Automatic annotation (TrEMBL):
Lineage: Eukaryota, Viridiplantae, Streptophyta, Embryophyta, Tracheophyta
Compartment(s) of residence: Secreted
Protein name: Laccase 14
Keyword hit for Oxidoreductase: yes
InterPro entries membership: Cu-oxidase_2nd (IPR001117), Cu-oxidase_C (IPR011706), Cu-oxidase_fam (IPR045087), Cu_oxidase_CS (IPR033138), Cu_oxidase_Cu_BS (IPR002355), Cupredoxin (IPR008972), CuRO_3_LCC (IPR034289)
Record keywords: Copper, Glycoprotein, Metal-binding, Oxidoreductase, Repeat, Secreted
Classification via Pfam families: Cu-oxidase, Cu-oxidase_2
Cellular component, GO, one term: extracellular region
Ranges for domain Plastocyanin-like: 2-98, 220-336
Domain of life: Eukaryota
One annotated GO molecular function: oxidoreductase activity
Subcellular location, principal: secreted
């Protein structure tokens, strides 16, 4: 990328990957975050950022250093323990006009692959710019645990199909329910009132509370099984929702990027350890407005939104392998009053099976 000395550039950063979260930095240059997930933020100055799959950040960077070539680098962030990954750095160049082709390239200083503090520091400082409609009164409180499971093997070919811990099968879940995607569209099943494709009994809290981070069951696969089901959660139109997302320590704690379709949400709280409503600090003044939040490794995130977009909306981990294992759920938002609060009909030319 050729740059003119003294000019400021807007970089739109997109993690278009599947299974790796990534740090980004430019050697000797500060980044100023001004937008996250297509929503303006208050300016936040940093020397590196981390993006999960599906996340976007817009940053300003000023070419205010001596004329030379500076590395723009991307490297992995891996918060889970004992998980193989490609520890590879990708490099481009932030090259000043006037730099010679053989100019020495100054390396970008990326955090170590497991630097959880570097991730937390940026999130702690991120503030929203337009936050006049943060829900202050809550109608529905939800508490959802997220994590990985190991199910007992019941396959005909266990050597091939059961390569999880202690001969089990890897799964993933929310509130210990591993989501099974049906063979029809959930939106169509809901719209046409087709029975038998889902149930509306997803629990609004774990069936059992315990020390999710440090006391999670780990005698795989004997006590690490998830239940299976296509279980949805139903919200009335206009419900003001608070959702606590809690990481768990079965198999490993990990930073899980949770994405909600159909909505952006305010990230009003973010912390390490088990969520405790008596000690959690919430920001209701200027929280960032996002559609994907990395629930911190061994920690929790609190989000708020108003359910004003009727339909069936998917909420899932944006690490593709976790999504394939069932770390997801769908939320039904019922119709309100009048055409502007009602799920529209399918288009006339909508393809039919």
């Amino acid at each position: 990328m050729n740059v003119v000395p003294g000019k400021t550039y807007l970089l739109r950063l997109i993690n278009a990957g599947l299974n790796t979260e990534n740090f980004f930095a430019i050697a000797n240059h500060k980044l100023t975050i001004v937008e996250a997930d297509a929503e303006y933020t208050k300016a936040l100055h940093t020397d590196k950022v981390m993006l999960a799959p599906g996340q976007t950040l817009n940053v300003l960077v000023t070419a205010d250093q001596p004329i030379s070539r500076y590395s723009m680098a991307v490297g992995p962030y891996m918060s889970a323990r004992n998980v193989p990954f490609q520890n590879i750095t990708s490099v481009g160049y932030f090259q000043y006009l006037g730099a010679t082709p053989n100019s020495i390239s100054l390396p970008a200083m990326l955090p170590s692959f497991n630097d959880n503090l570097a991730v937390k520091t940026v999130m702690d400082g991120l503030r929203g710019l337009n936050t006049s409609d943060v829900p202050k009164v809550i109608d529905k409180n939800l508490f959802v645990t997220i994590g990985v499971n190991v199910n007992k093997c019941n396959r005909k070919n266990p050597k091939k199909n059961c390569q999880g811990t202690n001969g089990g099968v890897f799964a993933a879940s929310m509130n210990n329910i591993s989501f099974i995607r049906p063979n029809v569209s959930l939106l169509e099943a809901y719209y046409r009132d087709k029975a038998g494709y889902f149930t509306d009994d997803f629990p609004g809290a774990p069936l059992k509370f315990y020390d999710f981070v440090n006391g999670a069951p780990n005698n795989a696969p004997n006590d690490t099984n998830a239940m299976n089901g296509t279980r949805l959660f139903v919200l009335e139109y206009g419900t003001r929702v608070q959702l606590i997302l809690q990481d768990t320590g079965t198999v490993s704690t990990e930073n899980h990027p949770i994405h909600l379709h159909g909505y952006s949400f305010y990230v009003v709280g973010y912390g390490t350890g088990n969520y405790n409503p008596d000690t959690a600090n919430f920001n209701l003044m200027d929280p960032p407005y996002m559609n994907t939040i990395g629930v911190p490794v061994g920690g929790w995130a609190a989000i708020r939104f108003t359910a004003d977009n009727p339909g069936v909306w998917f909420m899932h981990c944006h690490l593709e392998i976790h999504l394939s294992w069932g770390l997801s759920v769908a939320i039904i938002v019922k119709n309100g009053q009048g055409p502007l609060e009602t799920l529209p009909h399918p288009p006339a030319d909508y393809p039919r099976c």
